[in-house]
Batch of 4 targets.
Target 1
Amino acid sequence: MKTKTIKKKDIASFLDTLLTRYEVFAPVERDERVVFEAIGAGSEATLDYQNTTMPPKGILFPQTEQLFSYRSTKDTADIAVPSFKEKPQLIFGIRPCDARSFLLFDHAFDGDPYYINRRGNTLLVSIGCTHPQAPCFCTSVGGGPFSEEGSDLLLIETGDQYLIQIVTDRGAQLLEESGFKDAGKDALTLAQKMIKTAEASMGAGIEIDGLKEKLDSSFENPIWQELTEKCLGCGVCTYLCPTCHCFDMVDEAEGSTGERIRIWDSCQFPLFTLQASGVNPRPTVKERFRQRIMHKFSYMIESYNQIGCVGCGRCITECPVNLDIRQVVHTISKLEALS
Amino acid sequence: MPEVTKKIREIARSLLQEKKVDLVIGFEQGTLPLRATPCFVRGEKEVDRLVWDSFCENNLATYLIKRAERVAIIAKGCDVRTIVELIKENQISRDQVVIIGIPCQGMFDRRQVEAVLQGKEIQEVTEKDGQLILRGGSFKETLKRDTFLYPSCITCTHRNPVIYDLLVGDPVPELSTDPYQDVEEFEARSAEERWEYLIKEFTRCIRCYACRNACPLCYCQECFVDSSSPPWIGKTTDESDTAIFHLMRAFHVAGRCTECGACERACPVGVDIRKLNRKLARDVKERFGYESGVSLEQVTPLATFKPDDPEEFMVNP
Ligand code: SF4
Ligand code: SF4
Ligand code: SF4
């Protein structure tokens, strides 16, 4: 694999060059928080951050998106579909877990023109995690603090420079004419050391082996009641999850004009499965929380042969009542099968 | 083990042993540093899970609603105020709950602490003499607890439970600072500035409803945001939809909100939710002489009508 190096102080000017060709999204500081935003200058970006509270998923799957608008007259209806943004875009400084999450989206939005167009037009330059945090468990769900899966380029911090791992051809094209030097032996050894240290610093995580079978056989286990008793049924864990992608459609009409909008939805909300008859097959947080776990660790494996969680830890950090997905999974995997 | 934790366990054990309650709701150690988490204890064997520290930030009163069991609940000053409101609103009955009141010195704002640490990872936390000692691989940081309290704890007016069945710990002095200073400052701004401030806060909102769900007083069987036919309110995150959500919610808790701050602590993106709620709370206090959750007897302003009400808002629109 080809590798290059870039000095930390040259990142801003590298971004400035990219900005001539791409719309660039990068972590920026806003009101004492780091969020992904479109930047106007390379100097706005910060790579000195742990991870953002909000995942960058909204860049490819906006929380609110108009699908079409219409205007009807007595016998005609004009439908307008928003035009697709031609300018290619790039997400810079995305964490490896979040980069991997888009591989799941690729399955979920297979055939969806809004997503596919944007996705085909987007490059991902990720930055490896030198300091994985307490809630991180990417290594137990197939990723790693320096996983390159899903990325076009991966940056590895080595002292005052980054090693750039070139993952895809599209990634390689980004570096053409950049003049960055090939990485020397020292840089490569140092990078290997950083990767080893980071991986070794990660907590125990979760056990995936046999989990799906356990979940499938524990659907009716009363343990779910106990596990979910403190759950508030809010949308934090799903809205902040980089792999959660459920949505709702709303029609906003005013007289003869209107629009259809796609918005994020959450399996934790009562309305999510409320049927027109008034029946709700998931009437309480128990069924809803169970759905979230089943979807990630059983159904997505069935549908896409992929675990539906990338181990970013956001749902653990931000759950208002500290309902920890790792603990839930652990409890389930230790269950004796219900006979 | 801290004295309060020890006492809580003793009380919980004897209440369960003597079958006075079926369930004790309290806190146990969380899975991350600076976190405690709600805990439901039904058997004596589980009692030793209970803890009390500076991270018991959730308002557990939210778990009392629609419960058939007899419950003992660990409650801080603000939690007790919410319980009082819930009793007055007939959501729980007084004889169904055993209130284990705890005079509270404020809860630690984990996000503020994390901001100070700038990503350094905490491995161990100890509390001693009003100080918090955080240790990580390569650092040790000693923080004064009073400088890192939640905003709601800084403006708290009833740190000591107003009613209780059992009290654990010694009463603490109430704060002497003006609790509504920030509201007064806000009121002094021009209408445009106020709106600009609120809109800036609201546009950060992701409509996750953690604020509503954490709020013990948001117990409506069907919340206006959850209705799809009719859709009372737009579901998008554009400015007007989000603003309407916040304005409506503020009105729905006006004269009821006990300023416990559970909404704001639950918010993942740090929206200033309390500003409006507290503005309304202060208006209610000034105009109707009513402070929510401080007495079981006083009639709630929205549940009464006085023929001699000045009704200024009618004559001076
Ligand atoms: S697990 Fe936590 S974040 Fe998720 S719905 Fe329940 S309370 Fe909200
Ligand atoms: S389930 Fe939690 S840890 Fe897994 S990807 Fe989603 S937010 Fe991250
Ligand atoms: S908790 Fe925060 S983000 Fe969620 S709905 Fe409330 S204000 Fe909005």
Target 2
Amino acid sequence: MSGHMNLTLKVWRQKDAKAAGKLETYEAKDVSPDMSFLEMIDVVNESLIKKGVEPIAFDHDCREGICGACSMYINGHAHGPKQGITTCQLHMRSFKDGETITIEPWRAKAFPIIKDLVVDRSAFDRIIQAGGYVSVNTGVTIDANAIAIPKEHADNAMDAATCIGCGACVAACKNASATLFLSAKVSQLALLPQGHPERAARVEAMIDQMELEGFGNCTNTEACSAECPKEIGQEHIARMNREFYAAKLSSSKTK
Amino acid sequence: MILDSKIPDGPLAEKWTKHKFNLKLVNPANKRKYNIIVVGTGLAGASAAASLAELGYNVQAFCFQDSPRRAHSIAAQGGINAAKNYPNDGDSVYRLFYDTVKGGDYRAREGNVHRLAEVSVNIIDQCVAQGVPFAREYGGLLDNRSFGGSQVSRTFYARGQTGQQLLLGAYSALSRQIHAGKVKMHTREEMLDLVMIDGQAKGIVTRNLETGAIDTHAAHAVLLCTGGYGNVFFLSTNAQGSNVTAAWRAHKHGALFANPCFTQIHPTCIPVSGDHQSKLTLMSESLRNDGRVWVPKAKGDKRKASEIPEDERDYFLERKYPSFGNLVPRDVASRNAKEQCDLGKGVGTSGLAVYLDFAESISRLGEDTVRARYGNLFDMYAQITGENPYKEPMRIYPAVHYTMGGLWVDYNLMTTIPGLYALGEANFSDHGANRLGASALMQGLADGYFVVPYTVGDYLATIGPKAIDAKHPAFAEAKAKVEAQTKKLLAIKGTKTVAEYHRELGHIMWEYCGMARNDAGLRKAQVLIQELRADFWKNVNVTGTNEELNQQLERAGRVADFLELGELMVVDALNRSESCGGHFREESQTEEGEALRNDNDFCYVAAWEYTGDNQPEVLHKEVLKFESVKLTQRSYK
Amino acid sequence: MSWFTQTIFSTSVGRKVIMALTGLFLCTFLAVHLAGNFQLLHNDGGKAFNLYTVFMTSNPLIKTISYVNFAFILGHVVWGAYITYKNRQARPTGYAYNDPGKTSSFSSRWMGVLGTMILIFLIIHLKDFKMAYLGITHKLDLVTYTLDNGDQVEVKNMYDEVIEEFHEPVVVGIYVLSMIALGFHLYHGFQSAFQTLGLRHPKYTPVIKSAGFIFWGLIPLGFAIIPLIIFFCRN
Ligand SMILES: Cc1cc2nc3c(=O)[nH]c(=O)nc-3n(C[C@H](O)[C@H](O)[C@H](O)COP(=O)(O)OP(=O)(O)OC[C@H]3O[C@@H](n4cnc5c(N)ncnc54)[C@H](O)[C@@H]3O)c2cc1C
Ligand code: HEM
Ligand code: SF4
Ligand code: FES
């Protein structure tokens, strides 16, 4: 077929968490530009199996950019060189015939490698568990329309809420900081009246948890927003910082 | 076996209230003595786990992804229905009930559907309280859109990411309970078998996908919230990991499987681009609010869409169904698209696509309004196809999307195994032969937030809080069985990959048990599947070992179950020689080619009983009684 | 630990706020310092500059501010080093292949290095001028000026010391280079401090970013131009 490409892949292979890993070179032949990046890896994996080589392990599920499972550092960029998309949404038409593509896992102390390109992102879950919710039990009785919320606030909250928890922000940040991820949740709930009763406790608890997990400190390089597949902006970090100062200065927690 | 649906008697609108009153309660102080296992953390599972934990039960939740936030519910785009009647356009609980029963082509239970419509309003209240950022009007109140199969606007949405926002709401409630220590969350842990003691569900066997460790977990009740099985078709809009394993293995223990052949083929998906294709991407049905579906009037017209003048286009849905137009239910829209392509009018290189055109909306509303409504869907389309849908019409084709069939459950959502419940897409309950858009999210959350927390209590109160004996031999036996199967799969070391078998199965299913089915084809498919299954167990190549993260092994287990389920789907489709909803038997159609039901012979739920490996399954019928709704030929003209 | 120490030591946003506040204070200090340095360009044999030096070292308010200033430099350096160390730890294994240039500015990625260059400069600078002024390295000559009110004062001739230093190519080179480093440091640092403090707004952030030019462009340029003028135009 016309337009098919041959590529050289350098892929990070690592047997398990403890083993040392290294980049292995594979050829990807006859790649269609209509393939998604993960479909290209599927094809490579099938050929590896036929050759008796263990296929490359990688996280993926929805393959439409919403579950946040896929996570590859491609040619020096989280989710590849294109902006505003996940790895599974990256299509091979973004590459040139003969190109060499380097594929690595997310790298951060808080995201230990499990195998090959698969990392453990449970730290994100623990950050949410620390306070990324509104404490309401099932069975609330106030009507959904009882509180009007300015459309602009609702829209901004939605911008933040689109975070898919993929971890690209951490992967791209030179400090492996989870600030963008955290700020997305804090900002969403700070913008909505439903989040207000717990806003002080929430931001303090979540930031403390981020510290415990071993993420780095934000130095405002803005690489996170540039690499975020949902293009979550820096304003959410600023809002989170404000929430944090207000919480620290006003909360009655003295320890 | 007599299938007792346990639908309470009395007037339709009072059944649920009455039933809730009659259910036994567990004393608050006793709740912590009960353990409940929830398998799956999609909308159904996360909402159930959180709600049960809030009540005081000890919950253990499982999912195969690395986080509960990634369950496939996250991918739902369009919206969630609720009978709020905020737009004041004549909606009501009864109308939502009626639309859903009719949309399901009268193959769902009235009692269940009415309950669903009743609690739909609570769901929206609940989600808003959790901080779900639904779309709003300028006045600050919630916005609604319309969806297929209804003439009112009752669909709540959060851009094109409604499922994501609802799931993150449920996930946050779940996270809160994990933090409180009331839910123990097991991620990357797949249920591979059910543990039964004295005919009751008492636990599960799981494989830790990171280490390969096979463990057992005991509980007083087990809730399967494991989603749909559309991936039996290989290509579907489901996530790669979506599977039938948990439900199927419960089926093998005696849980009846209902209406397995009821599959929903979604009309608006991005067409297949080649053999490498691993999944099909849905373009939300909400697009049909503003997009117009058409094909060229002439066969084999290869001109570009923009070069085909208005009077040479056939807006076939608008032409055939003037009152619903582009918003006919999914099964109708899909079948019509297939019909046009079969007539040789399909567009695109493959000829297997029709246009979904926004030119008219863009000129009427402006590009900005269209972008605000569907921006992310348009971006997604552009990303996948490399074409700009603001300039050229989208090309769409139907794809497998949802499975109405699933484990048979009674009004309490209990399967035929005492103590085993099925929620969400994993059960068969509320959508009959065809699900209306925006109703699955509603059902998953209804089951998890508002139904099961009541009904489980009734069962638990009956069995009492005595601790389950984790040393019971049933646990060791179930574990040994799972280990044996894992060993067996790894030992075959044949020549074909798991994916190859999966793809082949998918071809058979799509060809013979897809959008149109007939007797000869189904019979042929049954033989083909049996052969493929036999070959799989002789010749599959599963690489690696058990004691590691092994994605080939995970998939092999799932495909093995699909190979059995596929046959049952074909058998069920063969049995049901009527057409209804998404199930179209070519032998049973009206003169105009619409699905023709046969209410005299098939007004029942077909629930299948497993009788042993490679043995024919036994059919049990739950006859459907309609007290409120009159059965009519569905018409969307 | 009290909530305050806990915040500024053990939370990432708290640590950052120290950086931002000390950093912004140092920015104002730079502006004042530069105003003083311009006294060097008066063609009066050093009178204005030497008198300014006396004022700066004897006025009690100014003296307090200068101690605060040293404390802030120290705080800024210590916190900066701690943050940089922590950030290194957060990624023990780096990428084999990385391409950060497209997604973040050079300045933002090299803050630690740029800051260290400034620190080295500060040490040299203090050794050369402050120590000399205090008479630790060597004794300065004395000069006598008649003030506007007719009084006579005898002061150390710092001016000659500076002019002499600024005829050393190495000194001028280091000075200019360091000011370039300062410019880059503040190119990111100035606006970044506002972001850290949460001061971001669609209306005002563009203003802050533009005003930043004063700090990353004009002020370092002002500092650098003085030794160059002296080197090339004064004997
Ligand atoms: C692309 C797409 C768009 C959709 N859009 C809409 C829409 O707009 N409106 C609407 O109403 N519906 C929509 N649907 C349908 C709807 O999203 C699903 O039916 C619904 O979300 C299913 O929820 P669930 O909780 O039953 O299952 P899922 O969300 O699929 O969750 C299944 C869970 O089970 C777990 N699991 C599965 N097997 C095992 C096992 N063996 N062991 C352990 N864990 C297991 C998984 O990890 C997961 O947590 C859409 C579906 C798709 C595919
Ligand atoms: C003395 C040596 C110095 C060192 C080692 C140093 C180091 C650093 C470091 C590591 C950062 C953190 C990176 C970041 O937050 O982006 C930083 C930030 C900053 N520095 Fe410096 N710096 C020094 C001197 C100065 C001086 C002299 C000034 C100003 C006159 C200054 C102003 C700033 C500002 C404004 C920030 C931004 C704070 C923020 O983003 O919150 N620094 N510095
Ligand atoms: S903020 Fe963006 S990059 Fe970070 S986890 Fe969320 S979606 Fe991914
Ligand atoms: S696989 Fe779900 S976001 Fe990529």
Target 3
Amino acid sequence: MSNVITWVPACKLDDIEQEGAIRFDHGGRTYAIYRGPDDSVYCTAGLCTHEAIHLADGLVMDYEVECPKHSGAFDYRTGEAIRLPACENLKTYPAEIVDGEVRVALG
Amino acid sequence: MDRIVIIGAGESGTRAAFALRESGFTGSVTLVGTEPHLPYERPPLSKPVNGAVQMKPICGAEALKAAGIDYLQGVSALNVDPHARSVALSAGGTLTYDKLLLSTGARPRRLTCPGSERALDFRTLGDAETIFSRAAAGQNVAIIGGGLIGMELAAVLRGKGIDVGIIEMAPKPLGRAVPARFAARFHARHQAEGVGFHLGQGIAEITDDAVVLADGGKVPADIVVAAIGVQPDTALAEAAGIAVGNGILTDGHLRTSDPNIYASGDCAAVAQPGGGHVRFESWRNARAQAEAAARNMAGGKEIFAAIPWFWTDQYDLGLQVAGLPHPDHQSVIRQLEGGELEFYLDGGCLVAAAGLGVGNGLAKEIKLAEMLIAAGISPDPAVLADPGVNLKSLLKSARAA
Ligand SMILES: Cc1cc2nc3c(=O)[nH]c(=O)nc-3n(C[C@H](O)[C@H](O)[C@H](O)COP(=O)(O)OP(=O)(O)OC[C@H]3O[C@@H](n4cnc5c(N)ncnc54)[C@H](O)[C@@H]3O)c2cc1C
Ligand code: FES
């Protein structure tokens, strides 16, 4: 049954600033949920791949999140590491908005 | 031009080696490093996780290999001959170069009082292992020097239940490195955590079990750590006849007085547009200068200009500073839920900013402040002070203007 997506309710869209991110903890793991400049939502693993730093504390500009510790950066839509010292990509998870509620598929 | 040699495999030298490849350099790159490990990051040494010293490599052996970087681990450069363009190695033999980068970093300043040989340094992985393997709960550690490194070490040791005394010549800790407002906050926090401060005190002697102060007082110490600052490692440059001052002197392109030799990182004192040379001791600077030097060695003509930035973590507090705050600047405070930001204006122009909060709580704001500094704005102080005004919107309107 691994191809069945289980959606987990995460927060309200309004809980996240536009061009912002929040931390979301679930099942003993931590994630970051982003609201893009166009109000679409995205979800990635919560910790930077350089050191274990919460990315939700970082600055979101356009579709980029910058790590608050050493300024490594990721494209949060794809998880791609786009600036050193981050060099390993982030894992991403499906996210969507249903009636103003954000839900994520953490599979 | 096909041979580049880099002396010093710290943050700066290692970053430069990779940056050479990133800028398309296809010749040989040889990285010479005294220390017997893979290149590693120093900041984690004073920020252990779960009490264990972290060995955080800057890169793996595979990454060095994949980039075609010849890393001579545990090898020292003994001297540089700028005429023959060669470097003599401790392992025997010489390397010849077309361009050379000196990224020799800095080494701890030594005490000169009687018993000073008893004091441990805190710069390398080896130093950290020595300190943390000896320091156990219930012991007394005396830290000489209340700068960033000494204060970070004190925080870590308190977390392990070790008694810590800090001895500092100046009347206040962190005076040189951190804006006064935040230095006072860290000082108070350390006092609340039980760190003993001995301020305005010189040192007479270090004995088996104590540090004897100039006024005759004794600070009990099973272990003594000297954290009284670092000196740029300029010996190789000096012996090679290259101009040095407080660091290896470079022009804006990071080139030394020898046109084939560059310098970057903690060892480099870089010419400023307004005159004089400035040397930084910070992680980001080591990387940013490495990248600029690498591009220039590979044929670029870039002038190094980056806004200085550093961070320090003590207990659960994180401070970040962008730009160079000066006591003469106009200070504007913004109080936020997670902490406090201080902006520094010079003749109305935003030149620096600092933020202290729990963890990385203010990192976002400092990043935006840094971009505002780069944009060269002269903001209304009332707007800066108002937490209701989003710095991001300020930046967007500055960029649109
Ligand atoms: C404990 C600690 C904590 C720190 N924390 C922070 C922090 O929180 N934030 C921050 O911004 N900065 C911090 N720093 C500062 C930062 O680590 C330095 O600015 C940075 O390491 C400088 O890099 P570098 O490559 O210029 O010099 P170094 O890291 O000193 O590297 C120079 C290397 O060159 C080698 N070398 C020297 N001479 C020779 C030779 N002749 N032949 C071969 N090799 C040679 C040395 O052995 C050394 O390995 C910290 C430093 C320490 C020690
Ligand atoms: S922890 Fe994210 S860049 Fe270092």
Target 4
Amino acid sequence: MICCKECIDLLYDYIEGSLDQNTSKSLEEHFEECPPCIAFLNTYKSTTTLCRDTLNQIEIPDEVRRTLQSFLKEHKEENK
Amino acid sequence: MSFTQQKEDKEIEEALVKDFQAGNLEAYDKIAELYQQKIYALSFNLMRNQMDAQDVTQEVLLTLFRKIHTFQGKSAFSSWVYRITLNASYMKLRSKKKEPNISIDELLPSFNSAGFQQEKIQDWSENTESLLFTNETREVINKAVGLLPEKEKVVFLLRDVEGLSTEKVSEVLDLTIPAVKSRLHRARLFLRKKLSSYFEEYNSQKGET
Ligand SMILES: [Zn+2]
């Protein structure tokens, strides 16, 4: 049986679905016997989703958008 | 996004770049409109400061305007834009006081000599719903990402937040694919650990009351 350390090293490829069948199978066997690693897998996945959903929400504030617009206008006129 | 849609977008973008290189200023406006959100979001997430992100976005848009003739199409146009954005952000960060770097290794899980987990692992993944969009959680996440070492942070932002493919990230950062994967994995482990402390504490407080 593979150990927890190996299991965690393989998580990335496991989630991507890029492990070969045998490795994938021994990983799943490990999960069956090891609740801590299942908890680890679930929280590893949740981490990615949570961080993405939080940081994805960055929008350009209106005042910045206005500044950018007039900045570009100015520079294009200089270069005409 | 479907594959055909992606392909079409890529063709439209290539045509815009060609038009702009030929001196068409309207093409530049469209390119600026297409990219300013991406440039702003990436630089904001790297620097966590609106003023700095605005400065960097301005600078990048200006660089695109002035240096478009140096773009030769060897890599994707978007990779070129991301690289310029990263360079400008790093220049800005370097001019500021740097926070001491913390070691990422101490935040990785710990194992006994046989390679089995030593710490208790709580599965908080099921009950993040109610916490997800509170300001406190957002604050914790922002802070945790802010603590990531630069090398891991940039890979994490490009791949997991901006949604670039592993191949694209390796092109932008000029890294091998295994290097991208290992940095991303380390970033996720680091963030998982940080979020775990927060959620576990939250859950235990809830259990007490
Ligand atoms: Zn295990």
